[in-house]
Design a protein that fits this description.
Strand content: 25-35%
Largest sheet: 8 strands, mixed
Distance between the termini: 30 Å
Number of helices: 5
Radius of gyration: 16 Å
Strand order of the largest sheet: 4-3-2-5-1-6-8-7
Helix content: 25-40%
Oligomer: single chain
Length: 194
């Protein structure tokens, strides 16, 4: 049975998107490639997307393996294109990009995905899907990239109504960009009075 990892980057104040919906992207470096991208997308993994995030990535990555990009970036593009993907959507019919569609209530869809995949399942976007996974308590592991900036406002995967949950830090690394990579195992939901 597979385990579900949420992999998201965010500002110190917890935002992944600006108020206008644009993504707040981290600074790029070789260490970002190795410790963030390489960890979140390598052979043996299954990537999970919401519809909007899948459509955005499916339009970008197939053309990223070009001569204008460096060798490592092109190799990563090939990995992204090769990896199997699942999009959780009740509206998308033909996802393309080596993806299949999973429909139905989120908890049932995630259970079916975990039963079919023996390994790490990485939810990499979009923010609405990841927020719903977090709020529903379906996440086994959080891999967060904390960017050294404040956004002031925007959208976060940690929305109101999130169940209080204890997390266990299992790894951390400071990257050369000043970002902090944090790995947490999801613990138990905290009950009133704990």
């Amino acid at each position: 049975m597979g385990t579900l990892t949420v992999a998201m980057f965010m500002t110190i104040d917890g935002f992944t998107e600006r108020a206008d919906g644009s993504l707040i992207s981290p600074d790029w470096s070789d260490e970002m490639q190795q410790y963030w991208s390489g960890t979140n997308a390598h052979d043996g993994q299954l990537l999970v997307y919401g519809r909007t995030a899948l459509e955005f990535n499916a339009a970008y990555w197939p053309t990223a393996d070009t001569a204008e990009n460096g060798d490592e970036y092109r190799a990563f593009a090939r990995t992204m294109n090769r990896l199997p993907k699942v999009v959780i959507s009740d509206t998308l019919e033909q996802p393309g990009w080596n993806a299949t569609v999973e429909r139905g209530p989120l908890d049932e869809a995630v259970t079916r995905i975990k039963q079919r995949h023996d390994g790490e399942i990485v939810a990499v976007g979009g923010i609405s899907l990841v927020a719903a996974l977090t709020k529903s308590g379906l996440v086994d592991h959080y891999r967060l990239l904390l960017m050294p900036r404040l956004a002031g406002s925007g959208r976060s995967i940690f929305a109101d109504g999130l169940p209080a949950t204890d997390l266990t830090l299992v790894g951390s690394r400071q990257l050369d960009t000043g970002a902090l990579l944090l790995d947490y195992d999801a613990g138990r939901e905290v009950r009133q009075g704990d």
